[in-house]
Amino acid sequence: TVLVVDYGAQYAQLIARRVREAQVYSEIVPGDTSVEEIVARKPAALILSGGPSSVYAEGAPAVDPELFTAGIPVLGLCYGFQAMARALGGEVAPDGTREYGRTELTVTDPGTLHGGLPTTHPVWMSHGDSVVRAPEGFTVTASSERAAVAAFEDTGRRLAGVQYHPEVGHSPYGQQVLSRFLHEIAGIAPGWTTSSIIDDTVAAVRAQVGDGRAICGLSGGVDSAVAAALVQRAIGDQLTCVFVDHGLLRAGEREQVERDFVAATGAKLHTVDVADRFLAALAGVTDPETKRKTIGREFIRVFEAATTEVAAEEHVGFLVQGTLYPDVVESGGGSGTATIKSHHNVGGLPDDIEFALVEPLRALFKDEVRRVGRELGLPEAIVGRQPFPGPGLGIRIIGEVTHDRLETLRAADAIAREELTAAGLDDTIWQCPVVLLADVRSVGVQGDGRTYGHPIVLRPVSSEDAMTADWTRLPYEVLERISTRITNEVAEVNRVVLDVTSKPPGTIEWE
Ligand code: XMP
Q1: Would you say 224 is a known binding-site residue?
Q2: Helix, strand, coil shares, percent, the chain, to 5
Q3: Is 330 found in the same domain as 219?
Q4: Which of 14, 278, 437, 506 has its Cβ near the most Cβ atoms within 10 Å?
Q5: Which range marks the domain in which residue 447 is found?
Q6: Is 508 inside any structural domain?
Q7: The pTM is what?
Q8: Which residues take part in binding ATP (predicted)?
């Protein structure tokens, strides 16, 4: 394991992902982890992340000099680079040098880290102050306009550092530099691959569950499907999957689970058909938060009843959850597994059943989950699915949710998705909510007659993490095809409009 020591930059997760792309497993530890704790984990190498702009910045975290003398290979990035320089007797000038954004790097001595790279190439910088003298024993290997010492290495001690950020896409050779550190300087053999992830996870699940029984709720989304598929591969029929069809799904989603997921995995599936119950509960509800609460409450009740039924028949002791690594990092958790009293953690499981959690995706990032899903043969419609909210189409009908309105929205949404996929835009778009303004009518004309129908809103957005988003500039021809088809094929809709609001100020969903 390579440990990424996080000094508070927003880049730690990105660094961990890049290390994994070099086929080396990595985890993130907080910057205040003690040297003893780090050494006890026997890491194959450490990567110190960026952080504040300078080691002289106010509140800059302390970096224990013993990190560099413990015999572990270390790569310092940005703040980690300055900290390494200072700890080992180099000099960081508190001169307020600032260098932000794209910068030309000049490789003065390729050494090991920059071996085979162009003599000058662009890198992404973000620092105040700079290293002016490398510590004894280090070779300075690169410089930039404002940083005389932009990279150094001491391959004997297996220590190296760069002032720039190799982990970001704006440093086009960054991945090579990280790989060279891991493979050449630290001497770590690549080998952490999708198939090794599957083998290791399957073995771990088998060891955890033994001959016990497990249950897994499927949502139609990628995380629960891949988690279930891994557990299915590990314990076969000891797993039962539960799928709640609340009637707020998009066209084809139930079939993807019932037919394609089952065909790919052989999983035992228990579908609960409760569309009418949800419609009854949602009757008269128009406020977005009340809708969410209503849907959430009904979902919990239905899932609880189904779980109790299955659990009683099968003596289920384990609950499978699709928790991902970013959730684990953000909640400050380690890589262990937890036993929970069900209602503490997982919304609405029966109070009197105690489950042990099985979390096969706990060490993985989303893109890795998708790769695992593909290798397990799951349908692309599930593995490649864009984010879709738990309350489903219920929060994409502005106004009361009714059976007919759901049918209208489902038809329009299916057309939009079909055309976006056909235009090859699925990877460009983060997600594209299709929204029905059910209480708005506008006048139109079709054939010889006047129409008085509802507008459909297209909300294509580009985003990294859904926290911020921009509206996606879709080609006019694609918009035209979607608009023509929806107004022709969906009788109640006579207008298609495009949402051109970023987030903030808009949110991605309309409710
Ligand atoms: P907003 O609308 O807040 O959405 O910009 C951000 C992301 O979260 C999704 N979303 C939800 N997901 N339950 C969910 O599971 C919800 O109630 C919910 N509301 C929004 C939304 O699709 C987007 O990806």
Answers
A1: yes
A2: 35, 25, 40
A3: yes
A4: 278
A5: 402-498
A6: no
A7: 0.88
A8: 219-225
